[in-house]
Amino acid sequence: MCAVWAAAVVVVMVGLALVFAPYVFAELSASLKPHAIIDPAKPDLGEGRMVDDYWAVQNIDANTYALGEPRYYQANYSYLIVGGQRALLFDAGSRTRDITGVVANLTHLPVTVMPSHLHFDHTGGIAPFTSVAMIDLPDTRADVTNGSFTPSRYEYLGMLDGLVPPTFSVTEWFKPGTTIDLGGRVLRILHVPGHTHSSVALYDAATHQLFAGDFIYPTTSTRSCRERASRNIGRRRENYSRRCPPIQKSGQRTAVALASVHQRPG
User: Where residue 254 falls among pLDDT bands split at 50, 70, 90?
Assistant: First the structure.
C-alpha cells in the first residue's frame, strides 16, 4: 500500500511540474539567460534597406512591406499591408524603437494594427495606435475589462525583458474565417493555434500571400527553410527576411511571410 501511495505522489508531483514548468521558466529566464536588447553591430541584411540606425524595410511588392528590427535580439518583422482605403500593420513591433514613424513614411492612409499574437515582441509597440483589430475568441474577450484590453502576464511574457503588459482599446473584432477589406484588398482572418492559443494568420487570396506570424518558424538557411516549408505546408513556400530572405511568389504558389528570423519564445 505504501508503494502505491508513493507512486501516486510521484505521479502528482510530475504532473504539477509539467503544468508549472513553463511559468517558472518564463519567470526565471531573464536572470538565467541575460541578453542585450539591441545588438551594437551593424546588421547584415540579406534583403531590404536600413531606413535609420534601427529599422529595415523591404518592399515585398508595391503595396506590401516588411518592417524589420534586425538589431533587436529577436530580429522581428512586422508587415504593412496597404489597400486602397486603409492599411493594416500586422504586429506592432517590440517597442524597442517607435514603429509609427516608419509606417508614416510608407503610407498616408489610416492604419489599423492587428497582432499575430500577444507576446511582448509583437504587441510592445501597439500603444500609439488608435485603430486596433483583434481576433474574436473567448480568450481574447476575457482580456477586456471596462472596455480596455490588457493581455495577461503569461500571454504577454514581458517579464523576459522587464516589460509590463500594455492596455489599449480594441476598435474592431474579427471572428475566425471572416475578412477585413482594406479597399480593393481583402485579407482573411485565420485562427492558427499552436505558438499561442490565440495566434492569427492573414491570407490574401488575390496575391497568394500568407502572413503567418510565429505560427511557422524559420531555420538557419534558405535551403532548409524551403525544405521545412515543403514539409509543413505542402507546395507553399516561406517568405521572409534576412536568413531566409523574402522570395516572391512563383506561379500560383503561396508566399509565406514570417515574423522572425530566430527560433525563440516570443
Answer: low
| CATH superfamily of this structure's domain 49-258 | Ribonuclease Z/Hydroxyacylglutathione hydrolase-like (3.60.15.10)
How far is Cα 239 from Cα 246, in angstroms, rounded to an integer?
Answer: 4
Q: Which has more confidence, 63 or 257?
A: 63
- The radius of gyration of the chain from alpha carbons, rounded to an integer in Å, stands at 20
CA 80 to chain centre: 13
Characterize the bridge pairing of strands 133-135 and 172-174: parallel
Domain spans, the chain:
1-34, 49-258
Helix and strand numbers (H, E) in the chain are: 6, 16
**Tens digits of residue pLDDT in 165-178:** 999 999 999 999 99
* Cα–Cα dist 166/247, whole Å: 34
In this structure, are residues 208 and 249 in contact, taking their beta carbons and an 8 Å threshold?
yes
In degrees, rounded to 5, the angle at the alpha carbon of residue 130 between the alpha carbons of residues 182 and 205 is 20
- Mean pLDDT is lowest, of 50-59, 132-141, 153-162, for 153-162
| C-alpha span between 116 and 79 (Å, rounded) | 10
Output the DSSP codes for 75-116: -BEEEEEE-SS-EEEES---SSS-SHHHHHHH--S-EEEE-S
Name every residue whose Cβ is closer than 8 Å to that of residue 244 and which is 6 or more positions away in sequence: 218, 219, 221, 222, 225, 238, 258, 261
Residue 58 and residue 241: Cα distance in Å, rounded?
8
Q: How confident is the model at residue 46 (pLDDT cuts 50, 70, 90)?
A: confident
